[in-house]
Amino acid sequence: MNRKKHGLFSRIAAGALALSLAAVSSGCQQQNQSNGTIAVIAQAQGVQFWDLLQVGAVEGASELGYEISYASTAKASDIDGQRTLMQQAIANGVKGIIIAPNSPTDLNSEFERAYANDIPVITVSSNATYPGIRSYIGSDNVSAGQIAGRQLAEELGQGGEIAIISHSATAQNAQGRVQGFEDSIALLNKQAKMTLGERATDFSDIWTVSVKESSDGTREGTEEVANKVMKEHPNVKLIFATNENSTLGVCDAVSNAQKAGDIKIIGFNSNEAEISYIKTGVLTGTMVQSPYNMGYLGVRYIDKMLNGEEIRESYDTGAMYVSSRNINDDVVQLWIHPEQN
User: Fold this and answer.
1) 323 in any annotated domain
2) Where are the alpha helices (DSSP H) in the chain?
3) Angle, CA 266 vertex, CA 252 and CA 15 arms, to 5°
4) What is the per-residue pLDDT across 150-174, written as a single tens digit (0 to 9) for each?
5) Closest C-alpha to 12, from 298, 301, 292, 299
6) Residues 135 and 151 both lie in one domain
7) What does the pLDDT look like over 12-25, one tens digit per residue?
8) Are 122 and 135 in contact (CB under 8 A)?
9) Residue 84 and residue 169 in one domain
10) Strand, coil or helix: what is 46?
11) Looking at residue 53, which CATH number applies to its domain?
12) Which of 240, 55, 250 is nearest to 144 (CA)?
């Protein structure tokens, strides 16, 4: 591993306000002869998050002597597409599979088939229920949703109606982030009631979720859902979105409706367009993750499994909240642009 990347991991681990990143400086090696192919299967096309995951996987593979076969379904709602990609990877005799499942349960037969063919599977970003999966690498999605929800006290301190628009009705990462966000809303309302004391008899929730929707996982599809939400729920003061495309779709809708600032937006991930929306005041804040490390560590874990080594059942790569208040901090820039450091 080059010194530049090692420095990135060290600095982020030391300075981030989120959970620890990977300590991966040991055991790096270059090999001339391929040890075989590792399949990487992402959730959706045209998403910078998955591009960065692919970059991490390719670097890990080059250090350990593997090749990467990267593929993705068109959108995060496509379960059948992922099933086909799994079947193709198994038929091609790959050494291992790294996948971000579009459903926690609907790919279990493919996971079973992979293990019947001695092909280990690692899940990244989004998990699945199949018991044979040896490890999950990615953010703790419930915890990340809770972090996002806790920002309400800062971003929407006066309270108000909230809408939630998730990128998938089935993917575990979407479900976990929504759960965590709602957990924080419940806690904030409970704390507000405790503050009121005896006056709490007439208490009504300060922050309320008036609508929950899921989109098809595309930017355009989410924009349509957001337009519908704004029309049918004119009192919504904040919209929570659960991934890159859903965040951008909500931002597009709010911006085109000229409601930037009137409707706050908390999203996920750090596409360049999302960063631009933060700088122009459309996107209030976003939960930044570490897709590069998910791909890099996924390859290293597959290699360890193939060599009979022990691995963790899960590895939390962390998440942190980024807004206009901290976007120019050095540590935030390391998270947003890992490929440049």
Assistant:
1) no
2) 3-15, 48-64, 79-91, 108-116, 141-150, 152-155, 172-196, 219-232, 244-256, 272-279, 291-306, 330-336
3) 125
4) 999 899 888 899 999 999 999 999 9
5) 292
6) no
7) 333 332 333 333 33
8) yes
9) no
10) coil
11) 3.40.50.2300
12) 240
Whole-number Å distance between alpha carbons of 54 and 69: 10
Q: Are residues 114 and 36 in the same domain?
A: yes
For residue 178, pLDDT beyond 60: yes
Do 184 and 99 sit in the same domain of this protein? Answer: no
**What residues make up the domain containing 127?**
3-139+290-318+328-340
* Domains: count for the chain: 2
Q: Which of 16, 64, 65, 67 is closest to 54 using CA atoms?
A: 67
pLDDT in tens, 120-134: 999 999 999 999 999
Any domain includes 170: yes
Q: Identify whether 187 is part of a domain.
A: yes
Q: At 311, list the tokens.
A: 């691995």
186 with 126, same domain: the answer is: no
Q: How many CB atoms lie within 10 A of CB 105?
A: 12
| Structure confidence at residue 206 (pLDDT) | 84
Q: Is the pLDDT of residue 31 over 90?
A: no
Residues 94 and 183 occupy one common structural domain: no
Please work out, in degrees rounded to the nearest 5, the angle formed at the alpha carbon of residue 286 by the alpha carbons of 232 and 318.
Answer: 130
Token pair listed for 244: 């890159």
What is the DSSP track for 166-229?
Answer: ES-SS-HHHHHHHHHHHHHHHHHHHHHHHHHGGGGGG---SEEEEEEEE--SSHHHHHHHHHHH
